[in-house]
Amino acid sequence: MEWNIPSLKDLEHYFWRCTACGTCRVAYDFGPPPFARPICPAGTEYGFEGYYSSKGKAAFARGISDGSLTFDDPDFLEAIYKCTVCGGCQNQCQVDYKPHIPEVIEAMRREAVDQGYGPLPLQKNLVKSMKNYNNPYQGPRRMRLDWTRPFKKAKTPIKNLNKEPAEVLFYVGCTGAFNKTAMAVPQATARIFQKLGIDFGILGESEVCCGSTAMRVGDAEEFKRVATNNLETFQKLHEEKGVKTIVSSCAGCYRAIKKDYILSSEYDKLMDGIEVMHTVQFLHRLMKDGKLKFQNEVPWKVTYHDPCHTGRHLNKFRVDEDGSQLWEGAYVDVDESQCLYDIPREILKAIPGVELVEMERIRGNSFCCGGGGGVMTGFGDWASKNASLRIQEGMESGAEKMISICPFCHYNLNEGSKRIGSTMTLHDLTEILDLALA
Ligand code: SF4
Ligand code: SF4
């Protein structure tokens, strides 16, 4: 299977466009910012934003490509990995063609891995675990089913798609399966599916990591290994077990399948007839069709955290290709139709008793939880510190609880809350939905 993953050289025409203007430092909508909160977790933590945030990263890319910077400097290597690849900078940048900073950062990491320097030592363990166990958490394969214990106990077992057919594959993902806090996410998802009578199944012990973490830290080979395996499995499940829809409650897995897997030359062929959806899209469709109705009141005052992977990672920038709108190459607009901004909010507003209040940085301006891009593994203290900043913003909104749609954000934001002794807890949208259903 061929993979069209760009090299740093392929992205040269992007990173030379960064003018080092610094616009990407703050969260703002078009026009003078009504508030000026930072958007870059790396720049926020390490202060010298020219070094650690996007314009610094663009300068690194230039230095690597002209040979003046090399990965044998440990501080330089570490700086490349001090980025959550949240895409916040890219969203704010108004420069023509857009410098595609997150793609450039990941390409630099791939270059570091190819030259034998990257990723960072702790992240190397993560990739080693993927090779050994098909998950980044060093968990034996049988532990992948730990989250299903309450279902066995309640004698409401979940179908194993290796043995029985089902229309829907619930692709659980490693964080939901192995992280004890985040296990609440697949458990709530499966409970909802059972309550609604959805014909779904899981792969259990044979599920393989989506590869997102490997890709984010620059190990393209490991990504390709697991992604190829998954694409072939998906096709087999479609042909032999009747799977028509793949549903994931994990923002990282969803993004990987939607955006990284399409880099495969075989994607269209192998995914023909299969729809990939985030759980909230799947449930939103049922809600619109009148098949999801809420019976219980949930008297929660909540705020919603947009994960980067279901938000701006999925946007598309429109550029004036032929000069007919402004001038050739002018950045003219952003297409956010693939971003899951409205769907979770519409579901929340439909739950009786729920009051939704918004934080200042939302949707494309969302402030990353701090856990992505290998940061939770490489810089755990920074990840939870950043999460505590987001929790503080949630508390300022007047909400009692924060809701999101990602097991990774679930874990990290709850860690951030504990760190500052906050009473605010992070819950997945599936958890609150589960409470609202009889
Ligand atoms: S990435 Fe864009 S907004 Fe940021 S410094 Fe470069 S040109 Fe300016
Ligand atoms: S991707 Fe996010 S963390 Fe990385 S430089 Fe851009 S805003 Fe900062």
In summary, what is this structure?
With 438 residues, the chain is an alpha/beta fold.
The main β sheet shows up as: 5 strands, parallel
Strand order of the largest sheet: 1-3-2-4-5
Form type: globular
CATH class of the largest domain reads Alpha Beta
> In the residues, how many domains can be counted?
3
- Helix content, binned percent: 40-55%
Overall pLDDT metric: 94
Rounded to an integer in angstroms, the radius of gyration calculated over CA atoms is 21 Å
Per CATH, the architecture of the largest domain is 3-Layer(aba) Sandwich
CATH fold label of the largest domain: Rossmann fold
- Span between N and C termini? 46 Å
Question: Helical region count?
Answer: 21
For the secondary structure, the number of strands is: 11
Heteromolecules bound? iron/sulfur cluster
- Poorly predicted ranges: none
The percent range for strand residues is 5-15%
Structural class: alpha/beta
Written description of the protein model:
By secondary structure, the chain is an alpha/beta fold. It has 3 domains: 9-114, no CATH class; 122-288, Rossmann fold (3-Layer(aba) Sandwich), CATH 3.40.50; 301-436, 3-Layer(aba) Sandwich (Rossmann fold). The protein is 44% helix and 9% strand. The chain is built from 21 helices and 11 strands. It has a 5-stranded parallel beta sheet. It has a 4-stranded parallel beta sheet with strand order 9-6-10-11, sandwiched between helices. A two-stranded antiparallel sheet has the order 7-8. α20 links the parallel β10 (401-404) and β11. The longest helix has 22 residues, at 220-241. The protein starts with 11 loop residues before the first helix and ends with a helix. It binds iron/sulfur cluster (SF4) (2 copies). One iron/sulfur cluster is lined by residues 18-24, 54-55, 58, 89, 92-93, 95, 99, 101. The site of one iron/sulfur cluster (SF4) has 16 residues, from α4 and α6.
